[in-house]
Queue: 2 jobs
Job 1
Amino acid sequence: AYADDGTLLGRSSLTMVDSEFRYRIPNTGLELRGEGVFVTFGNPANLRANNDSDPTDNVGKTMYGASGEIAYHFPLGTILHSEWEAVPFYRYTYENLQTKGFAGTDLNTPTGAGQLQFHNVGIAIFPSPKLVLKATYQKVINRDPAGAQSDSVLGGAGFFF
């Protein structure tokens, strides 16, 4: 990759450590989930984002995020010869995508971009253990003054195989 001034950018590396857990408390419908991730770049001065003359998309030496979720499984009984289940849930997520060690040709100061929080409340309906229908309301808190501030209603379907 090349910087905006035409100079060849050197190499960089990325190391990511991720940990996840999921636990359903025996003999109850209560389920807990969590995830944490930490990322470090070997040489952020060589990243295109730090050399594209746009100081708002800079990448720091590190970034991280974490989320936690609580859900409860309610059996709905047998419908159409299948065991249905409703699972209301709440999930909180925090991400910081611009931390430490800014370097490159752009103005290298943290802008607040990349500091995001998400509050998700929703329900998942399982017509069978291999099929899920989801509806979620997502509240977004974005520290970037120019960033997306809009909340959303999301829907989806998924299947396991």
Job 2
Amino acid sequence: MNCQKTIVVKSHPLFILVIALMCNAVTAQDEPFIYVLGITQDAGYPQAGCYQQHCLAGWENPELRLGATSIAVVDPAANNKYLFEATPHLPEQLYNLEKVAPDKRYTLDGVFLTHAHMGHYTGLMYFGLESMNVNNLPVYTMPRMAEFLRTNGPWSQLVTMNNIKLQSLENRHSVKVSNITVTPMLVPHRDEFSETVGYQIDGPNKTALFIPDIDKWEIWERDILEEIRQVDYAMVDATFFDENELPGRNMSDIPHPFVVESMELFEDLSETDKNKVIFIHLNHSNPLLDRESAAYQQIVARGFKVAKEGDHLPL
């Protein structure tokens, strides 16, 4: 909503001030924002087949269950909304998005995918004939990801039946959607079926980094510290807290930056820049899911944050 810059009112000066303040408030409401829909690793919390103590609370209390990592960008000025990731928990996540950006006003104008691991794209199935049966929903992907969807069923049916319309992305080439600019950036990860990207999301006023999956920061061609310094929010991979989290598993088979490693690396950041860091994509075993845990308190004490469903980040 636009506000007139000049208001002519023949009345008390305080009345004019009130009108101006109201106008500014409406303008702020029209600014785009990120809305966090999910914060966990691909399989959610609790994870299928996990009946250990840390999972039982989630099975016994549905209110504690959490969906796979996904964020939405909502643009009130353009009446549009966009998903980043299509997770297995898409139905619940779309409902939660509906509560802040209802379909009667906001059009779902696109989905941005990072890669072809189960928690990041399999929710596309809900856009198909057996469920929502949408028409030509833009799905933004890198080339290998597009080829994977185009040539493998059941995803290929979404393309041939025009449920989704694949939109090509290129590394470090920005695309403009509504009042948002989105830039994909290749990151090293287990790329069995597709390449993997993170995204920089630029709004009119603020910028966010979204990298839910990466193998290790030190093998990325870019300096994560500089990337954090250049944005207002940095939502980064926190799959595992440390190397002892999965007894009996070879952690080198599922490489991610341990949160303890990231904290040491990020220690060189200023307090202001540390406060930009928002850890996301937590495995069901990650103690950061428990906000009463010593691990969570350590994060807070060192100046970092952990994402939570429902977080609202102005852009």
